[in-house]
Amino acid sequence: MDKTKQAYIETVGRRKTSVARARLEESGKQSFTVNDQPLEEYFKTEDLRATVLSALNLTETTSKFKVTVRVMGGGVSSQAVAVRHAISRALVEGDRDLRSPLKKQGYLKRDPRMKERRKFGLKKARKAAQWAKR
Questions:
Q1: Residue whose C-alpha is closest to residue 82's, from 116, 35, 40, 117
Q2: Residue 50: partners with Cβ closer than 8 Å, 6 or more residues away
Q3: Is 78 in contact with 17 (CB distance < 8 Å)?
Q4: Concatenated DSSP letters for 72-120?
Q5: What is the mean pLDDT of residues 103-113?
Q6: Do 69 and 34 meet the contact criterion of CB atoms below 8 Å apart?
Q7: Is 20 in contact with 13 (CB distance < 8 Å)?
Q8: CA-to-CA distance for 69 and 5, rounded, in angstroms?
Q9: What is the tens place of the pLDDT at every residue in 16-44?
Q10: Is the pLDDT score of 4 beyond 70?
Q11: pTM (2 decimals)?
Q12: Among candidates 77, 70, 69, 11, which has minimal Cα distance to 43?
């Protein structure tokens, strides 16, 4: 095997506290597993599956790759966006021409919004105890 052609492309995607490692292998038939489960079993709703597959659908490479994903942390919604981020990065690494449409949709941008930490003296991040003048 020559060193110029890799067997797969592996990238990391993140959202909130979710981290997804996606591995794309070129394959004749489509296969999508998330944490050793089929996509439909791991992401139960159609909206989450649409989020995960949106990068592949946009670039029309749905049936071209065997996708294996390890995802941890966060909730299912942020995990879905983290998986999309990882897949988008892998697609760009494989083919530079796909960068423009993915960037236009915002799939290559890491969404940094996180829950704000609780501060001492307050009930939540910003919620203070009620104050009464009299």
A1: 35
A2: none
A3: yes
A4: ESS-HHHHHHHHHHHHHHHHHHH-GGGHHHHHHHTTTS-B---PPPPPT
A5: 93
A6: yes
A7: yes
A8: 21
A9: 999 999 999 988 788 899 999 999 999 99
A10: no
A11: 0.87
A12: 77
67: burial class by Cβ within 10 Å (0-12, 13-18, 19+)?
buried
Residue 1 is predicted with a pLDDT of 43
Distance set, CA 81 to CA 22, 97, 124, 131 (Å):
12, 22, 26, 40
For the segment 53-104, what is each residue's pLDDT rounded down to a tens digit? Answer: 999 999 988 888 899 999 999 999 999 999 999 999 999 998 899 999 999 9
Torsions phi, psi for 7 (to 5 deg): -75, -30
CA distances from 44 to 47, 49, 79, 83, 84 (A): 9, 8, 13, 15, 16
Contact 13, 112 (CB under 8 A): no
Q: What tokens does 49 get?
A: 């599956």
- Residue appearing with tokens 């439909």: 40
Rounded to whole angstroms, the Cα distance separating 31 from 33 reads: 7
